[in-house]
Amino acid sequence: MCTGAASVRCDVHHYSRRVSLTPLRKPPSLRVRELIRRGAEIALDPRQDWLAELDAATLSGQAQQAVAADPVLAAGTRRTNRSNLLFWAASNVRAPGERVPANEGDAPLAIARDLVRRGLDETALDAYRVGQGVAVRVWTQIACSLTDDTDDLRELLDVSLRSISAFVDDTVAAIAARMRVERGELTRGTHAERREVVTLLLDGAPIARQRAQARLGYALDPTHTAAVVWTDDPDADLHQLDRAADALAAAAGGTPPLSVLASAATRWVWVHGRPDTDRVRAALAGLPTVRVALGSAGPGVDGFRRGHLDALATQRMLAGLSSARRLTSYDEVELVALLTRDPEHADRFVTRVLGDLAAAPTETTEAVRVFLAERCNASRAAERLFVHRNTLLRRLARADRLLPLPLASRPLDVAAALEVLHWRERD
């Protein structure tokens, strides 16, 4: 369909740039209203490749690096993308061609709060403009599938592109206003004070240790373990995050933790000592939506700062590998975190080193990984895997046939690649 519509499509880019400067015109004809309604029904059931393109666009670019690197903010952005798309489409099913009000639902308001609590400003809302560009392209594809009448298509695009632009303008304005309110609330009270002091310590600012301790109510001299406690579940009970922070402190000896609200769904936590991970894992069994990334342990302000950075690196690594691991410590994943700082490079490395072994059953890849971890001692590896030694040897032989080069020729590379694969597949 869409014969004769080339000239209409040529106007789309021009419309997307200037349409926000012009108010919506008179309501469209009944025929075009029906076309808009039909297109909106298609948009209500978006294709996965549309959503993937929208997510990739809104999380790319220099300005969005801080958002893309934070699993909670990135997940909030993806939820907001879907919320905005479905909100606009549903409005146009109910009232085709009429002005769509700003989306002030739970998803966009939640991301507004989280952006402010991360210290980000309204420039982060530029992602909405990027998303608008993707939405215009997708909507044009939908529109061109609805009619081959050039006049109807021109009117349809004129009305709907103005509608998309006005909707984005109004939503950005509403979210920016909410961010200003949230910022005002955060500048008052004990949370703001703790966040300010923690930020100074993390930035290495010259704040007196005694003054920082007094304002935080937390001693800085002992050995600390930092943690990031968060949830990916938008329907989670957020009180579970605070209970997880208390569980970390209990597992480390009972001294009250320092907990800072990094976002609605994230806490930055410090405890004195090193938590017993078995006790933490047992506590998390009763907190099913909570995840914990533990940083390294270290004394003083340097340990406070370094442990936090390591905990953040662990969280980012888990997000980059799409790992669902509930409790992870930096000590376990330091090598993998270094290898996966550039996810695309890490993927190429795994593919090049492992070849067909990368797609082998887990029992085969685990046999090689554990064998290498046990310094190529087959007996110890078999015992650790709870299999007979001959079974292990058969799996190793199968793996050797799948590798591009024999295992003995590059054991370190294979071990590193298998660690990346291991953490990517953990649940």
Folded structure, characterized:
- This is PucR family transcriptional regulator.
- Residues 366-418 form the PucR C-terminal helix-turn-helix domain.
- Belongs to the CdaR family.
- The protein is an alpha+beta fold.
- It folds into three domains: 6-186, Globin-like; 221-333, Alpha-Beta Plaits; 343-425, PucR C-terminal helix-turn-helix domain (Arc Repressor Mutant, subunit A, Orthogonal Bundle).
- The protein is built from 20 helices and five strands.
- The protein has helices at 6-10, 12-18, 30-43, 48-58, 65-68, 71-94, 106-117, 126-144, 150-186, 190-202, 209-216, 239-251, 277-284, 300-320, 330-339, 343-354, 362-373, 378-385, 389-402, 411-425; strands spanning 223-231, 258-263, 266-272, 290-299, 327-329.
- Strands 2-3-1-4-5 form a five-stranded mixed beta sheet.
- Helix 7 (106-117) packs across helix 9 (150-186) and helix 17 (362-373) packs across helix 18.
- The protein is flat, with a radius of gyration of 26 Å.
Largest sheet geometry: 5 strands, mixed
| Model regions low in confidence, pLDDT < 50 over at least 5 residues | 1-24
Helical stretch tally: 20
One letter per element, helices H and strands E, the order comes to: HHHHHHHHHHHEHEEHEHEHHHHHH
Content-based structural category: alpha+beta
CATH topology of the largest domain: Globin-like
Task: Provide the helix percentage.
Answer: 55-70%
Shape: flat
Label the CATH architecture of the largest domain.
Orthogonal Bundle
Could you give the distance between the termini? 46 Å
